[in-house]
């Protein structure tokens, strides 16, 4: 969990004002004629404009000298940029600083043109203009940032300007969430003074990305809002397929496919439509990706067609402004980061809309391994957001989340107006959502037991314990004194005989007991609890789970009913 110094967040009032009024371009007709815009001509024009004419340093006003004999136009077509193995001390330091400040390789970004080209391997299906309505609505693009790197922010904005039909972009609204990096002050305003579509808005204090997004929406005027993170790159043809879905049905909320921009080399990895994922979540209220489920695949003739998604990742989506307002935009009681994506996803589905991922639309995002900026110390921001979410939208299912956090809900503030919103909108129940929109989700109440798994040997205070595993990565499972706080001691025994947490299962292949992605094939992941002897019996090996005398290791041994170290109790056990 990121932690840092305190900064004041008091109340939900959002300050801020436009530092620079954009010229109103709304009435200027599109460059290519009033009626059906000639998309192909537009595309070629944009392509030509994309060719880097200037050195990256001039583009970005950021002067860093490339290493001697470095490639001419690094990063073009989304290619990886690799720094030389031998670097001067000075350069090494600059590279390290970039990583420290941003949690991605800023040095490499600074070497790449802010107008770099990207690959365009779209399916022919997507390039067929006849698929899209000709009269698409305009969108404002809202980009919130807190201490974003210069070239990365510029590349985000230029990728929108360079690769969207001009007449479909109203304004690009940059919302500065109280950054303190100097390049985001005057320098940013001066740079974008030459771009009438770009408007900069600044918060008067650190609001967090959720209230920053609300602030951006308050300044928007176009019929559609499109949100992007501040370290994205839009590809050719990204926008039309999104706007098309909203033009056909204004309660459809749409997300592009989010491609990975490598945090080290800035390589753009284009995900083909066969590999599209949809969003889900687990009972820790963490977002997760899943392959398109069978039931959804069957609804389509082509993998390029938009697919329903139970949830969105959060950062990249388009929504009809009026529909967004009707849903009460975001809960302004959410701080800094997290949970707002599930809030918007749940209420979209529960209150009459649909949420889709559009495989023809691709936008890249720099995924990083840690959060680079300051959060709030002393407050578990993410938990507070998640409890608000659960209190308002999850009905009786909220108990499963609370169990995971040891029922320690902390102070989540007042949610009465959010509950009223849900009532006024006559939204459907969370059970309806789970049954109809996310039937794949494993529900703890459907299992044989859920909660801690406690060993009765050596004093009976030792529990099965493991940190969350990464999918497809084996992780050792161990023991720890029982703490009754859920977390790493929260387990479910499924009716199929799995001991699992979310998508990870207890797995024994003859050596260590590990956590591994659930495969549903019983075998090494098949366990039975023998109620009378309290033993946990393993399928393929026939052995029983036990703990060592030192209590800090798991053992698999020949079953012996008289050994208390082989006896376990399972919380919420229901033998029926
Ligand atoms: O206090 C803050 N103020 C901000 O303006 C903290 C962050 N921000 C900005 C920040 O500069 C960035 O542009 O908010 C954006 C998101 O923060 P990131 O990029 O540090 O986090 P992330 O990419 O992990 O964020 C994902 O989850 C967030 C949960 O609140 C948001 O929904 C992000 O938009 C979301 N990003 C994506 O969906 C991109 C794909 C990642 C995945 C999966
Ligand atoms: Mn991000």
The low-confidence runs, each spanning 5 or more residues with pLDDT under 50, are 1-38, 48-63
Query: Largest sheet at a glance?
Result: 6 strands, mixed
- Residue-averaged pLDDT: 89
Report the C-alpha radius of gyration, rounded.
Answer: 26 Å
C-alpha termini separation: 39 Å
What structural class do you assign from the helix and strand content?
Answer: alpha+beta
Give every kind of bound small molecule, once each. ligand LR7, manganese (II) ion
What is the CATH level 1 assignment of the domain at 446-570?
Mainly Beta
Say what the CATH topology of the domain at 446-570 is: Trefoil (Acidic Fibroblast Growth Factor, subunit A)
Can you name the CATH architecture of the domain at 446-570? Trefoil
DSSP helix count?
16
Give the percentage of residues in beta strands. Answer: 15-25%
- How many strands appear in the DSSP assignment? 27
Describe the strand arrangement of the main beta sheet, using strand numbers: 1-4-3-2-5-12
> How much helical structure, as a percent, in the residues?
10-25%
Q: Looking at the structure, what is the overall shape?
A: globular
Domain Ricin B lectin: 450-571
EC number: 2.4.1.-
Membrane topology: Single-pass type II membrane protein
Pfam family, one: Glycos_transf_2
């Amino acid at each position: 969990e990121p932690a840092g110094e305190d900064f004041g967040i008091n109340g939900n009032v959002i300050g801020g004002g436009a530092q620079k009024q954009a010229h109103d371009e709304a009435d200027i007709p599109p460059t290519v004629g009033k009626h059906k815009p000639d998309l192909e001509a537009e595309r070629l024009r944009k392509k030509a404009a994309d060719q880097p004419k200037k050195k990256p340093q001039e583009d970005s006003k950021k002067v860093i000298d490339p290493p001697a004999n470095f490639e001419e136009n690094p990063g073009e077509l989304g290619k990886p940029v690799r720094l030389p193995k031998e670097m001067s001390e000075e350069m090494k330091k600059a590279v390290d600083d970039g990583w420290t400040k941003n949690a991605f390789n800023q040095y490499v970004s600074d070497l790449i043109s802010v107008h770099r080209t990207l690959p365009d391997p779209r399916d022919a299906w997507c390039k067929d203009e006849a698929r899209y309505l000709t009269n698409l609505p305009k969108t404002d693009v809202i980009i919130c940032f807190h201490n974003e790197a210069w070239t990365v922010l510029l590349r985000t904005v230029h990728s929108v300007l360079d690769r969207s039909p001009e007449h479909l972009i109203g304004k690009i609204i940059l919302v500065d969430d109280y950054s303190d990096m100097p390049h985001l002050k005057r320098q940013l305003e001066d740079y974008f003074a030459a771009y009438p579509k770009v408007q900069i808005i600044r918060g008067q204090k650190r609001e967090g990305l959720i209230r920053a997004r609300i602030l951006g929406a308050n300044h928007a005027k176009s019929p559609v809002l499109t949100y992007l993170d501040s370290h994205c790159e839009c590809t050719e043809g990204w926008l039309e397929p999104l706007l098309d879905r909203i033009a056909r049905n204004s309660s459809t909320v749409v997300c592009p496919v989010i491609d990975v921009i490598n945090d080290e080399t800035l390589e753009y990895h284009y995900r083909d439509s066969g590999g599209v994922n949809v969003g889900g979540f687990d009972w820790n209220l963490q977002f997760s990706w899943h392959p398109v489920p069978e039931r959804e695949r069957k609804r389509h003739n082509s993998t390029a067609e938009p697919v329903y998604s139970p949830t969105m990742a959060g950062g990249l989506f388009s929504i009809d402004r009026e529909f967004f307002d009707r849903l009460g935009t975001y809960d302004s009681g959410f701080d800094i980061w997290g949970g707002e994506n599930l809030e918007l996803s749940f209420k979209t589905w529960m209150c009459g809309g649909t949420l889709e991922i559009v495989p023809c639309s691709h936008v890249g995002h720099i995924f990083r391994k840690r959060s680079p900026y300051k959060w709030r110390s002393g407050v578990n921001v993410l938990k507070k957001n998640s409890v608000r979410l659960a209190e308002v939208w999850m009905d009786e299912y909220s108990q499963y989340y609370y169990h995971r956090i040891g029922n320690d809900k902390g102070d989540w503030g007042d949610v009465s107006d959010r509950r009223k919103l849900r009532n006024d909108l006559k939204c459907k129940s969370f059970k309806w959502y789970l049954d109809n929109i996310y039937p794949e989700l494993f529900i703890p109440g459907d299992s044989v037991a859920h909660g801690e798994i406690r060993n009765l040997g050596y004093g009976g205070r030792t529990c099965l314990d493991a940190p969350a595993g990464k999918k497809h990565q084996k992780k050792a499972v161990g023991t720890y004194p029982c703490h009754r706080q859920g977390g790493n001691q929260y387990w479910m025994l499924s009716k199929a005989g799995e001991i699992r947490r979310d998508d990870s299962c207890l797995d024994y292949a003859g050596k260590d007991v590990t956590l591994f992605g659930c495969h549903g094939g019983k075998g090494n992941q098949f366990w039975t609890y023998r109620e009378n002897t309290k033993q946990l019996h393993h399928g393929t090996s026939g052995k029983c789970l036990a703990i060592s005398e030192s209590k800090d290791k798991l053992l698999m041994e020949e079953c012996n009913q008289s050994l208390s170290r082989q006896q376990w109790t399972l919380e919420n056990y229901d033998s029926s």
